[in-house]
C-alpha cells in the first residue's frame, strides 16, 4: 500500500518547491532529505533570481520562473530577504557594449524590462565600480533572496498541506516507485522525483557533473553596492566545458554584507578552498571594484553546482513512468526552482505547460549529443 | 611617581586626553561612549578584551569595523561609535 | 610557535637553547599571552616572578618574537599565513616552518543571561585585559561573578587598580569546593596564591553558591541580580565581570587536520599531534593552567629538536610534573563544575549570538548547529562562532562544525593568494610579498 503519491528525493530548494507544487495539486507527498533542509547547493549559492539568455530555452525558463517569484513575493516571509535589487551586466569595453545593446534588444522583444547605461550612468548607479568601464545593462526586475529560508518556506507550505519530511533519510536505491534508504527502510510511491542536486548516484545515466564554486561574504558595508553586479564575461565563464574560470559577480544582501563570486571548476575537486582559483576570483572582483580589497572578508566556502553538457536542467519524466527528474540547474537553481516545480507538476498531472518543456526532458538525454548546443 | 604623557584623540566629536599607550577601546569606554550599535540597535562595548568578540568595533579615522581593544591610540585619531 | 603565552615561551626557550632557529608568532604587541599580559601603560600591573623569569629566559635563549601577527590560514604544506593590523595599515605574510608548536591558548566561555550585552558587562579575563589597556576602574563598583580561581585573581587585580569590589559570586556549591580546598594543602604554592588573593580583597564578600541571573541598566550596566537558589537580590554596580571557565582555541589545529579528543587536541606524551611536524601545548590540549602550560611547552620544545641523553633526563623530570598537573586539573574541574541553573540562564529575548542579534527564542526548535546557522545566522558573524558557539553548546548541546579559512576576518586583499600591504587611507593598495622561511 503506497503511503505517498509522490516521494521527492532531496530537500534543497528545488525539491521543496516541487513538494509545494505537488501538495497544492492534492497529492500526498514525502520528502527525503539526508541532512539539513536547504543545506546543500541551496545554502552554498548566491540567491540570485536572474533572467539568463544564453539559450532560447534558458531564456524562456528563467523569464517564466522569475515571474513566478514575483507572484510569490507578497507571501514570502522576511527571512527570505527577497529584494528586487536588479542586476547590472557590466561592460568593460566597446566590444562588450555591443553585447549590451544586443541583449537589450532581445529582452525588449520578450517584454523583459532593461535599460542601457553609458559609462557615466553606470558610475552614478554604482559609484564603487572602477572608472573607465564602458557601461552596462540594468535589469530592474531581477532579484536577490536568501535561499535556505526560501527552501524552508516552500517546505513549510508543503507541510501545511500534508507533506511529510523524512529527515535524515538517504536514498541509496531506486527501482521504479520503490525507494530504499541507507538504513534499510523502504518506501513505495506512485511516483518519485529525483532532486538530489549534484549527487546523481541514484540515476547514474544522468549526464550531471559537479562544478565547484567559491564564495566570500564580507562584513556589513551598507550602501557599498546597490544592484547585483555581473561582468558580461560571466556567460563565457559559465560555458567553459573543461577549464577552470572565474568571473566578477557581487551581490548585496539586505544585511549590508556582500557576497563575492564567482568561480567554476570541473573535475573531482574536494570541498576545501582552492587557494589559487579563490585568489583569482577575488583579484577579478578587485579589478572591477577596487574598494573591495580593503573590506573585511569574514567567511569563505565552496559548493557544487549540478551541470549538464548543454547547460539546460533536466525536468520531467524518464523512460520509467514512475521516475521523474528535477536536477542539473548549474548556477540557476534558485532562479528556476519555482518554474521547474510548476513544469514538473504539470507534466505529472498531464496539464498543459506555460512554456515549451521539451528542451528539458530527461528522456531526450540518450540523444543529448544531437541536441543543439547554443551559446550566448 | 612615574609621569605619564598624555595625548589627545577625538571620541564622537569630543576631544579627550588619554594616557599614552591607552587602547582606543579604553578611550571610548572611559568617555562613556558605546563602541558600536548592534544589528537590532543595542549599544555595545568590548567584551572579551582579546580581539575575538568583535564587540569593540568602531569607526577609526573614517574606516569601519576596526577592532579597538588591541589598538593603541595615536595623537589626533578620530573615533566614532559604529552605526 | 604560534602563541607567546606561558606554553609558547617555554617551548621556544627550550628549542632555542638547543640551537634551533625559533620564531614565535603572537597577535598581541608583546609576549605573555592572556594570563601574563603587560599593561600598555606598563606601570601598575604586578609582574609575577614566574613571568619575569620566563620572559628573561626567552630573551636570553635566542628565540625571536614576531608580535602583532594573527594566523589566518595554512595555505600549503608547512606554511602559515598571518595578518598584522595596525591603526593605519594591514599586512599579510607567510611563514614556512620545519616544526610547528601550537600554543594558541584559550578564550573565555560566555553564558548568555538577560542584560549580558550591556556595555559595562565584561568577561573576567577580558576586563583585566581592558584595564591593562587603560580602561579606568578607579572608584568604580565591581561585581565579579561566575566560577573558578580566576574570579579571585581578577578581583584582586581590580582592587589594585582602585576598584571597589562589591562582591565575588562563585556558583559552585560549598560541598563541591571543600575537597578542592583540602587538596590544596598538598600544594603550598597554590594555597599561598589563593590566600594572597583572598587577603587582597578581605573586605569584600565572597559568596559561594551564588550566581547572576540578570544585569540591568540603560546603555550601561547599573546593577546585577544575583541569587543563591533561594533569595534573589540586586547589587548596584558600575562593572560586571563574568567568568565561566575557558574554552580551548583549537581552530588552527583543526584546520591543520589534527585529531581531536573531545573538544581538545589529541597529543602524545611528547605533545605530538596526529599531524607530522605539528605539536600542541597548553590549554588547547586540556585546560590546566600556567604551570601545566610551561611544562608541556618545555617537553614539546625538547621533542621538536630531537631528544638526546641530556634531554631525556630533563624530559623525565618534566613528565613527572606533567602528571601532577593533570591531577590538579582534574581536581579543578570537579570543584568548579557548572550547576544546571547556570547552564540555562537565557530567557526568550536574551541575545545569544551578539554579532547577528539572534535570540534564544529564535534558536529553540532548531535541529542542529548547521540548521541554526542557515536559518537564523547564528555563528555567521565576524566572531565566527567563537563567542556564541560555546554558549549554544551549553544551551542546546550542539557541536560546532568544521573549520575553514580564513580563521579570522581579513581584508579581501589578504585572501588574494599573494602577500599584500594595504593602507587604510583611500588610495591604491600596494603589493608587497613577504615570505619568511
What does this entry show, briefly?
With 83 residues, chain B is mainly beta. Chain B has 1 helix and 7 strands; from the N terminus they run ββαβββββ.
Count of the domains of chain B? 1
Q: Runs of chain A with pLDDT <50, length 5+?
A: 366-376
Strand order of the largest sheet of chain B: 2-1-7-5-6
Classified by CATH, the class of the largest domain in chain A is Alpha Beta
- Give the quaternary arrangement of the chains: heterotrimer
- How many helices of chain A? 9
Q: Could you tell me how far the N terminus lies from the C terminus of chain B, measured between alpha carbons in angstroms? A: 40 Å
| Helix percent band of chain B | under 10%
CATH names the topology of the largest domain in chain A as FAD/NAD(P)-binding domain
What is the total domain count of chain A? 2
Give me the CATH architecture of the largest domain in chain A, please. Answer: 3-Layer(bba) Sandwich
Overview of this structure, please?
The complex is a heterotrimer of chains A (376), B (83) and C (437). Chain A has nine helices and 18 strands. By secondary structure, chain A is an alpha/beta fold. Chain A has two domains: 4-45 and 147-207 and 310-375, FAD/NAD(P)-binding domain; 83-142 and 210-307, D-Amino Acid Oxidase, Chain A, domain 2, CATH 3.30.9.10. Mean pLDDT of chain A is 93; it is low at 366-376. Chain B has one domain (6-80): Ubiquitin-like (UB roll). Chain B is built from one helix and seven strands. Chain B has one helix at residues 24-30; strands at residues 6-11, 14-19, 36-37, 43-44, 57-60, 63-67, 78-81. In chain B, a hairpin with a 5-residue loop joins strand 3 and strand 4 (43-44). Mean pLDDT of chain C is 88; it is low at 423-437. At the B-C interface, helix 1, strand 4 and strand 6 of B face strand 8 and helix 3 of C.
Amino acid at each position: 500500500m503506497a503511503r505517498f503519491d509522490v516521494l521527492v528525493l532531496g530537500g534543497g530548494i528545488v525539491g521543496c518547491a516541487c513538494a509545494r507544487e505537488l501538495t497544492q495539486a492534492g497529492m500526498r507527498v514525502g520528502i527525503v532529505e539526508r541532512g539539513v533542509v536547504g543545506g546543500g547547493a541551496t545554502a552554498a549559492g548566491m540567491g540570485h533570481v536572474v533572467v539568463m539568455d544564453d539559450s532560447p530555452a534558458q531564456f524562456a525558463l528563467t523569464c517564466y520562473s522569475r515571474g513566478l517569484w514575483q507572484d510569490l513575493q507578497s507571501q514570502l516571509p522576511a527571512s527570505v530577504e527577497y529584494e528586487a535589487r536588479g542586476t547590472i551586466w557590466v561592460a568593460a569595453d566597446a566590444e562588450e557594449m555591443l553585447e549590451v545593446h544586443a541583449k537589450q534588444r532581445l529582452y525588449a522583444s520578450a517584454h523583459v524590462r532593461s535599460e542601457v547605461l553609458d559609462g557615466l550612468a553606470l558610475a552614478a548607479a554604482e559609484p564603487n565600480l572602477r572608472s573607465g568601464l564602458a557601461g552596462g545593462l540594468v535589469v530592474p526586475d531581477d532579484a536577490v533572496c536568501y535561499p535556505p529560508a526560501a527552501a524552508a518556506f516552500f517546505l513549510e507550505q508543503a507541510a501545511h498541506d500534508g507533506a511529510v519530511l523524512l529527515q535524515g533519510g538517504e536514498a541509496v536505491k531506486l527501482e521504479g516507485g520503490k525507494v530504499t534508504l541507507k538504513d534499510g527502510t523502504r518506501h513505495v510511491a506512485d511516483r518519485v522525483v529525483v532532486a538530489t542536486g549534484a549527487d546523481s548516484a541514484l540515476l547514474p545515466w544522468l549526464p550531471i557533473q559537479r562544478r565547484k564554486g567559491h564564495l566570500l561574504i564580507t562584513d556589513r558595508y551598507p550602501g557599498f553596492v546597490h544592484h547585483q553586479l555581473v561582468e558580461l564575461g560571466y556567460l563565457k565563464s559559465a560555458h567553459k566545458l573543461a577549464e577552470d574560470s572565474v568571473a566578477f559577480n557581487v551581490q548585496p544582501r539586505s544585511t549590508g554584507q556582500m557576497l563575492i563570486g564567482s568561480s567554476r571548476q570541473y573535475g573531482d575537486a574536494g570541498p576545501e578552498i582552492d587557494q589559487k582559483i579563490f585568489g583569482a576570483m577575488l583579484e577579478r572582483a578587485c579589478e572591477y571594484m577596487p574598494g573591495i580589497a580593503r573590506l573585511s572578508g569574514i567567511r569563505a566556502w565552496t559548493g557544487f553546482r549540478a551541470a549538464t553538457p548543454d547547460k539546460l536542467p533536466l525536468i520531467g519524466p524518464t523512460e520509467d513512468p514512475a521516475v521523474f527528474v528535477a536536477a542539473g540547474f548549474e548556477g540557476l537553481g534558485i532562479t528556476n526552482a519555482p518554474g521547474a516545480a510548476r513544469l514538473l507538476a504539470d507534466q505529472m498531472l498531464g496539464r498543459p505547460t506555460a512554456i515549451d518543456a521539451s528542451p528539458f526532458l530527461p528522456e531526450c538525454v540518450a540523444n543529448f549529443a544531437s541536441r543543439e548546443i547554443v551559446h550566448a | 611617581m612615574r609621569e605619564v604623557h598624555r595625548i589627545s584623540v577625538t571620541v564622537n566629536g569630543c576631544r579627550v586626553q588619554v594616557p599614552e599607550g591607552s587602547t582606543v577601546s579604553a578611550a571610548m569606554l572611559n568617555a562613556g561612549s558605546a563602541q558600536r550599535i548592534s544589528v537590532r540597535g543595542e549599544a555595545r562595548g568590548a567584551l572579551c578584551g582579546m580581539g575575538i568578540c568583535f564587540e569593540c568595533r568602531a569607526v577609526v579615522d573614517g574606516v569601519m569595523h576596526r577592532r579597538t581593544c588591541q589598538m593603541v591610540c595615536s595623537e589626533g585619531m578620530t573615533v566614532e561609535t559604529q552605526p | 610557535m604560534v602563541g607567546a603565552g606561558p606554553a609558547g615561551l617555554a617551548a621556544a626557550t627550550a628549542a632555542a637553547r638547543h640551537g634551533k632557529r625559533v620564531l614565535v608568532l603572537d597577535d598581541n604587541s608583546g609576549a605573555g599571552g592572556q594570563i601574563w599580559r603587560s599593561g600598555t601603560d606598563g606601570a601598575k600591573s604586578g609582574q609575577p616572578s614566574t613571568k619575569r623569569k620566563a620572559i628573561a629566559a626567552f630573551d636570553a635563549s635566542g628565540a625571536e618574537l614576531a608580535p602583532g601577527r594573527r594566523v589566518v590560514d595554512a595555505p600549503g604544506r608547512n606554511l602559515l599565513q598571518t595578518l598584522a593590523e595596525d591603526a593605519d595599515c594591514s599586512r599579510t605574510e607567510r611563514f614556512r616552518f620545519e616544526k610547528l608548536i601550537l600554543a594558541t591558548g584559550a578564550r573565555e566561555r560566555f553564558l548568555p543571561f538577560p542584560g549580558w550585552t550591556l556595555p559595562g558587562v565584561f568577561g573576567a579575563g577580558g576586563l583585566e585585559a581592558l584595564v591593562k589597556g587603560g580602561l579606568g576602574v578607579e572608584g568604580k563598583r565591581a561585581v565579579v561573578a561566575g566560577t573558578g580561581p580566576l574570579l579571585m585573581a581578577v578581583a584582586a587585580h581590580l582592587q589594585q587598580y582602585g576598584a571597589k569590589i562589591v562582591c565575588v559570586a562563585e556558583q559552585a556549591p560549598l560541598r563541591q569546593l571543600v575537597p578542592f580546598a583540602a587538596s590544596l594543602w598538598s600544594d603550598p604554592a597554590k594555597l599561598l596564591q589563593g590566600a594572597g588573593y583572598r587577603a587582597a580583597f578581605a573586605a569584600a564578600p565572597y559568596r559561594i553558591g551564588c550566581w547572576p541571573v540578570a544585569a540591568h541598566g540603560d546603555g550601561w550596566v547599573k546593577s546585577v541580580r544575583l541569587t543563591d537558589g533561594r533569595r534573589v537580590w540586586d547589587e548596584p554596580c558600575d562593572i560586571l565581570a563574568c567568568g565561566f571557565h575557558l574554552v580551548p582555541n583549537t581552530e588552527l589545529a583543526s584546520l591543520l587536520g589534527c585529531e581531536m579528543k573531545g573538544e581538545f587536541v589529541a597529543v602524545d606524551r611528547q605533545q605530538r599531534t596526529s599531524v607530522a611536524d605539528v605539536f600542541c601545548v597548553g590549554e588547547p590540549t586540556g585546560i590546566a593552567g600556567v604551570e601545566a602550560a610551561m611544562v608541556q611547552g618545555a617537553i614539546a620544545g625538547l621533542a621538536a629538536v630531537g631528544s638526546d641523553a641530556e634531554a631525556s633526563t630533563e624530559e623525565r623530570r618534566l613528565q613527572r610534573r606533567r602528571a601532577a598537573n593533570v591531577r590538579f586539573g582534574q581536581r579543578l574541574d570537579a570543584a568548579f563544575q557548572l550547576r544546571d541553573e547556570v547552564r540555562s540562564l537565557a530567557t526568550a529575548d536574551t541575545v545569544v549570538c551578539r554579532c547577528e542579534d539572534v535570540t534564544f527564542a529564535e534558536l529553540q526548535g532548531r535541529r542542529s548547529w548547521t540548521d541554526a546557522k542557515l536559518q537564523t545566522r547564528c555563528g555567521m558573524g565576524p566572531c565566527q562562532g567563537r563567542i556564541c558557539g560555546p554558549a549554544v553548546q551549553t544551551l542546546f548541546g550542539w557541536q560546532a562544525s568544521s573549520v575553514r579559512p580564513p580563521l579570522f576576518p581579513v581584508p579581501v586583499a589578504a585572501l588574494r593568494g599573494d602577500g599584500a600591504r594595504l593602507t587604510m587611507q583611500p588610495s591604491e593598495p600596494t603589493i608587497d610579498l613577504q615570505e619568511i622561511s
